[in-house]
Specification:
Blueprint: E1 2-3, H1 8-19, H2 25-30, E2 35-41, H3 48-63, E3 68-73, H4 84-89, E4 95-98, H5 123-132, H6 135-146, E5 150-157, E6 164-166, E7 180-182, H7 187-193, E8 197-199, H8 203-212, E9 217-218, H9 223-229, E10 237-240, E11 249-255, H10 256-261, H11 264-298, E12 303-306, H12 309-329, H13 331-354, H14 358-366
Parallel strand pairs: 2-3, 2-4, 7-8, 7-9, 10-12
Antiparallel strand pairs: 1-2, 4-11, 5-11, 6-9, 6-10
Helix pairs in contact: 3-11, 5-6, 6-13, 7-12, 12-13
Amino acid sequence: MKIVDQSRRTAVKMGLAAGAGVMGAPMIARAQSSITLKMQSTWPQKSIFHEFCGDFARHAEALSGGKLKFQVLASGAVIPALQVMDGVSSRVIDAGHGVPGFWFGKNSAFGLYGAGPSFAMDSTQMLGWIEYGGGAALYEELLASTRLDVVSILHGPVPVEPLGWFRNPVNTVADLKGLKFRTSGLAVELFEEMGMAPTQMAPGDIVPSLDRGVLDAAEFANATDDRMMGFSDVTKNYYQQSYHMANNVFDLMINKKVYTALPDELKKILKYAAMVTNSDISWKSMDRMSTDLLELMSAKKVQVRKTPAAILEAQLQAWDKVIERHSAKNPLFKKIVDSQRAWANRVVWWQDTTVMPTAYAYRHYYGKRQAK
């Protein structure tokens, strides 16, 4: 963590403290100008998710009046993407940005914060569970189980991720059998249950593998990133709607010692910056992803299709088996599943009872939807 102060006297004090190996809360509290945290994301430089990471940093700086800043770096700038949480814990970097599912290897329960149907919750309802339904406390418990020196700020409603790009059309569950498919986290097990042959690989390898036939199909993130990565250059079959990552959220990680040393004012600003970023992500996603999906259809002649209902139903059945298996051997996993189930039972029911389906009014004003 870099602390910048224009006062010569304060700079001398900081230098003496640093020489003595001291980096405590009183030191930060006395600094009157900005505190800069080095933060690396898990996303490529041009990814809209990396842009969201930068948006969080921008909002935090604005809310703090410039007292808190982030040096935002893209994936691989300091350490590999999937080592970001470890890098934050060991303070190779001060902060990191990713999604909880990336830490699935440390505890399978990380995958519950974004993967699967999660009892029909969308990402906004997931954030509601995190904020008001006990999800934040359970995530702290999950972090404690890893013994890593990390504080997490969960934020950002990630739009539903598409089922993905397929070399050939798929109409039934049988069409998926044996397909070599790129996905990640707990979704690997979901698709295995459906008879596919899922694999994980780095973002930069996905499109070349699809082009060479190493993969039969792949999913990554959203229309904006998928367009940027060039999926439409190797296949034209793009399936929307899927339960495999229907409610993802972002994880902004800060080294625990660094976070503890921050003044209380800046800790509160981090919380409020997350809330501001939640809205900004929602609005920017609406604008950019809708525009890019239409562009893929018009300029790239992509066949945008809705995932067949039978495949969606098969995903639900597969997910039930995945969470039953992990709940039986991981008590914390089961505890999180039970908490999500209770929250969703009430909140999803409330939304379905009170909010009108969009399809009726859309057809009234615009006619038949463009996706098949």
